[in-house]
């Protein structure tokens, strides 16, 4: 039995309390145990794959205490590695995460008594790209998840399971903003810093951090407002992020809007002053393409910078126009191009990254159906409403299970996908 989960995004909590409740792992492992113990099944081995964005070393305020040169997009990798190890320790020490890691180990120990072999594997994504850069961080990841891996070796960027017909990767390789490498997907490609790294830390994490520093409000009001801005990274679709920010500003009294506008302006200016960001735009802003990927980032930042200049109605119009260029699912477009699908042993392409659980038929080849599956996320989601400017929030939990025919004799089930949604008042 082969199981995939992804995009858990364990953090140190400094950029918002978004860590999973450990109870979620009880639901997950209870189901796996039920499948294994089902007398109709013949499961003899279990491979559990953590398919990227498990340890989030970007969504933190911890980097703000270090100079730019020592951050992930700086030019002092030795110092950066030391700081990343410190941030990982703080992530692992978070009470929720500590309990979750203990629960994962304990439940895996139980499953080891029920099957002949249990393997636990991990593929880094873009938010945990740093984990693969040093043995020290790989050791910490192995310890946290009880991984079946030699930390002297880098974690793989893709996995192939021909017995299950499965090819898997995190999928950020096809996200222009979160993978800076080329199509060869070499180790050097994965080591390159994408623009998504400083966007996550220097914009998404810094904006609520600066608001918290400057706001003079009663504690409950301040915490509620800051928490709303900390949720930027949970907005879906991602193209609605600008609208989410406009929506948050629109709900505030006039005097508070002015403060928020100042903070947004300061954060954007500081972002543009980063040496890495200057170099990135120099490389990616193409004169021959009137609305390239660099222009799309600049358009979003331009809208946010114009709170004081344009009316909110005008900004909503601009945000709606900009959103159209960001709606394409690049991972869905990439899945049919995977070379593995030309091999008759493979039927399934599995990605994570988008936080959107999907099962999409691709084609019928070699007398077999070929499909793309996305493992979604276990994170909260703030979904843009269809009929007005509001957002509705809930929590998700998604996992994918693959079977070999002999593991389900007589039923020939190849895979199951499960997505749970929890809406709380």
List its traits.
alpha/beta, 7-stranded mixed beta sheet, 425 residues, 5-stranded mixed beta sheet
The coarse silhouette is: globular
Architecture of the largest domain in CATH?
Answer: 4-Layer Sandwich
Mean pLDDT: 89
- So what's the CATH class of the largest domain? Alpha Beta
Counting DSSP H or I runs of 4 or more residues, the number of helices is: 13
Task: Describe the main β-sheet briefly.
Answer: 7 strands, mixed
Would you list the SSEs in sequence order as H and E? EHEHHEHEEHHHEHHHHHHEEEEEE
| Number of separate domains | 2
According to DSSP, the number of beta strands is 12
At the fold tier of CATH, the topology name of the largest domain is Purple Acid Phosphatase, chain A, domain 2
CA-atom Rg in angstroms: 22 Å
Q: Percent of residues in helical segments? A: 25-40%
- What separation lies between the terminal Cα atoms? 36 Å
Percent of residues in beta strands: 15-25%
Taking pLDDT < 50 over at least 5 consecutive residues as the criterion, the unreliable ranges are: none
Query: From the helix content, strand content and strand pairing, which structural class follows?
Result: alpha/beta
Detailed description of the structure:
With 425 residues, this protein is of the alpha/beta class. The protein folds into 2 domains: 274 residues, Purple Acid Phosphatase, chain A, domain 2, CATH 3.60.21; 130 residues, no CATH class. The protein has 13 helices and 12 strands. The strands form 2 sheets. Strands 1, 2, 3, 6, 10, 11 and 12 form a 7-stranded mixed beta sheet that branches. Strands 4-5-7-9-8 form a 5-stranded mixed beta sheet, with no helix packed on it. Helix 2 runs parallel beside helix 4 and helix 6 packs antiparallel against helix 7. The protein starts with a strand and ends with a strand.
